[in-house]
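To: structure subgroup
Subject: Chain for Friday's discussion

All,

I'm putting the inputs and outputs inline so they're searchable in the archive.
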Amino acid sequence: MDKKTISADGTSIAYETSGEGPAVILVSGAMSTGGTVAPLAVPLSERFRVVAYDRRGRGESGDKAPYAVEREVEDLAALIEAVGGEAALCGISSGGALVLEAAASGLPVRQVAVYEVPFADFLEGGAAQHSEYTAQLTEALAQGRRGDAVELFLRLTGMAEQMIQGARQSPMWAGMETIAPSLAYDNAVMGDGLLPRARLASITVPVLSVAGGASPAWMREASRAVAETAPEGTYRSLEGQTHMVEPDVLGPVLAEFFGG
């Protein structure tokens, strides 16, 4: 990240830009940094000035306690100001919940695109699962058990136990433990885990909600519900894609939407 801006509470937010044109800010999900979404900037930077940033508490960005979702909305406000005072937002997974909240908060946003925000009310038993995860995650982080917190998240995503234990032995694990405290931030961004219907209904700009055609049915239903609840919502399904969407597939769909 070669640039920095200062958020309202004094936290330094690291970001980088590519391309020229109207600004588009990419917002990563849990256990991710700006580098995770940077590949998506490649197909978009032909038409837009694309911003990838490290959310607070990860990568090269700073952090300050206590955490509140409002601080991350302020981070986006600072980024928008730094790139000209207006931007479109694209959020992946729980990052999508953050950009929807930012739009509902009245930031100067042109359009919002989200990919598979995992609202739990569309998964059988999802609300109870979210509540249990919240309690266990809070306890693990309070006790400094970062590795256990990462395991909880990977289990929540459906990763097999054998793969989780394999991940623990991988060179990537230390980096995952480093940003494990930010799992609480993504969990806070998701609220009670349920679709925030009143907040979505208050968004006054166009919203594109995208899902992978090969993703679980509940994830597609959640994505469709986002589009149906936002006043100017549109739903798209990408054939053959999963939660780990390919940038070269998602990118052209976003470019068409943001260029409209």
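Points worth raising on Friday:
The chain has a mean pLDDT of 96.
Strands lie at 3-6, 12-18, 23-27, 49-53, 87-92, 109-115, 207-212, 233-238.

D.
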